[in-house]
Inverse folding.
């Protein structure tokens, strides 16, 4: 009896299988790394991957704000000025990306489907620890590309833990998949040194610590931080005043994810930043 | 045994009789399309019978839990892989059932040396408009009944599943006269519970050919609601999110049930 049409065997158990391994079983997920890269200088100059930069996140008033500028670059070239680096994974989780979008968007897609797949097959939500670990594993699987210098992804993961002790949780990663839980804020990407400086300063000596900020104050701080990053980092767009392109800002709270409408960001920008 | 065609036909007939007998006590499931989506309703005590398959697809099933589980898992796998490689819009219930589930179930049923799938399933896919809702009932032998307009039959905006044929027929007859596609949620919940009660009554009195009287339905419904939990789920037509499935708590529904 051939039951292979349904893609599982007699001993199949849904609990043993996560979504990436389903994709591998069906041959739908690429290998962990491509062949050895030519190391000659000419090759390196000929091709540079598109990269996106500077994302930040911090906790305020029981929620997490996640913001990212809109620029994607390849070497000195601006590839795109409306890239979205702040991606919704499920109703309460956001993955924000710095690094190569080709890899990062695929990773976000796998992660999003993994969480849905888990909920549908196991009939329960995945725990926050499980979600954090799932992203870590995807980064780890991608490490072959990182070594070859073509697929570095350094994400931030923000979520709301609705379980035993309801609170907003914020994690950042390194390219190899180590996860670090941030108590107050996180920033990655080429513009992140400036942003970290600002967030540290504001949190320690500012008018009030980050977790006491109101939504409007939080949005204006995020815009100021990204604009500062753009001042010294060409790969970060900050706020495009002439083109009226604003960063993407999303807020994760107990109720779920809110995407701030552009006109609201523009209003805060005009009043507090410009 | 198989070498002789007659024996094969006999074996299949025996098998059909056996499976029908196993499925006969299964608690009915009613799925009704309405303005804001599709509602699935059943009553039960223990096992979950309604499941999310994909963004716009849900399933209700009766039968052996092991078989339901294997087919459910297969359906989720297929839909998820398709939705991942292409897009959620490319996942179609019609293709899932006609090209994947049905052939597998038919093969298992007709291979008389292997086990058949002991289950009967009801799938629904919510459309942008009520006319686009698709309901498919899949039998243990791979047979498919749809709500689509075929010859000499109008398109229906509901579908039911039950242990016996009579039970299904009378539930359908009831909904055909009772249910309107543009009905409100409260109305649909009550029609679905009435349809469930009719189906359930018929499982006990399988000889009945006509719909039970109104007050008999109401009484049966009240008795059952007192001892069993309502299991319900909706596929929302336009929730502003890609995922339309939402299971409804028993408590949520008790308040809007008319006595």
């Amino acid at each position: 009896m051939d039951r292979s049409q349904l893609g599982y065997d007699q001993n199949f158990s849904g609990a043993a299988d996560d979504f990436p391994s389903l994709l591998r079983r069906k041959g739908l997920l690429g290998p962990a790394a491509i062949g050895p890269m030519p190391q000659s200088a000419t090759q390196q100059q000929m091709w540079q991957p598109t990269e996106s930069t500077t994302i930040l996140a911090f906790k305020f008033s029981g929620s997490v704000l996640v913001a990212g500028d809109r620029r994607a670059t390849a070497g000195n070239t601006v590839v795109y000025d409306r890239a979205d680096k702040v991606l919704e994974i499920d109703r309460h989780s956001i993955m924000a990306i710095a690094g190569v979008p080709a890899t990062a968007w695929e990773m976000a897609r796998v992660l999003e489907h993994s969480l849905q797949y888990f909920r549908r097959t196991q009939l329960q939500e995945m725990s926050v620890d499980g979600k954090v670990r799932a992203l870590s594993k995807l980064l780890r699987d991608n490490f072959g590309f990182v070594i070859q210098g073509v697929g570095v992804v350094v994400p931030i993961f923000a979520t709301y833990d609705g379980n035993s002790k309801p609170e907003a949780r914020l994690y950042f990663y390194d390219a190899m998949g180590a996860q670090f839980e941030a108590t107050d804020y996180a920033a990655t990407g080429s513009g992140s040194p400036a942003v970290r400086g600002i967030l540290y300063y504001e949190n320690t000596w500012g008018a009030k610590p980050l977790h006491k900020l109101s939504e409007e104050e939080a949005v204006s701080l995020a815009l100021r931080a990204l604009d500062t990053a753009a001042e010294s980092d060409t790969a970060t767009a900050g706020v495009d005043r002439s083109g009226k392109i604003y960063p993407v800002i999303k807020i994760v709270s107990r109720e779920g994810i809110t995407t701030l409408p552009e006109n609201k960001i523009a209003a805060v920008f005009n009043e507090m930043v410009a | 045994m198989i070498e002789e065609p007659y024996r094969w036909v006999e074996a299949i007939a025996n098998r059909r009789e056996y499976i029908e007998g196993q499925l006969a006590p299964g608690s009915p499931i009613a799925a009704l399309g309405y303005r804001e989506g599709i509602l699935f309703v059943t009553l039960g005590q223990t096992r979950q019978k309604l499941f999310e398959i994909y963004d716009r697809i849900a399933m209700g099933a009766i039968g052996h839990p092991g078989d339901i589980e294997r087919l459910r898992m297969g359906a989720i796998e297929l839909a998820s892989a398709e939705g991942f490689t292409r897009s959620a819009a490319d996942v179609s219930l019609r293709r899932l059932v006609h090209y994947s589930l049905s052939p597998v179930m038919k093969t298992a049923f007709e291979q008389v040396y292997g086990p058949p799938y002991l289950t009967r399933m009801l799938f629904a896919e919510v459309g942008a408009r009520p006319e686009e809702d698709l309901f498919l009932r899949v039998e243990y032998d791979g047979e498919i009944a749809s709500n689509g307009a075929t010859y000499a039959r109008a398109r229906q905006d509901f579908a039911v599943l039950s242990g016996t044929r009579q039970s299904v027929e009378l539930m359908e007859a009831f909904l055909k006269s009772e249910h309107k596609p543009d009905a409100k949620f409260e109305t649909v919940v009550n029609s679905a519970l009435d349809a469930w009660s009719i189906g359930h009554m018929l499982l006990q009195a399988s000889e009945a050919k006509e719909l039970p009287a109104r007050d008999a339905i109401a009484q049966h419904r009240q008795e059952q609601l007192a001892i069993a939990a309502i299991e319900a789920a909706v596929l929302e037509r336009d929730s502003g999110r890609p995922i339309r499935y939402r299971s409804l708590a028993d408590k949520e529904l008790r308040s809007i049930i008319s006595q």
About this structure: The CA atoms of residues 36 and 238 of chain B lie 7 Å apart.
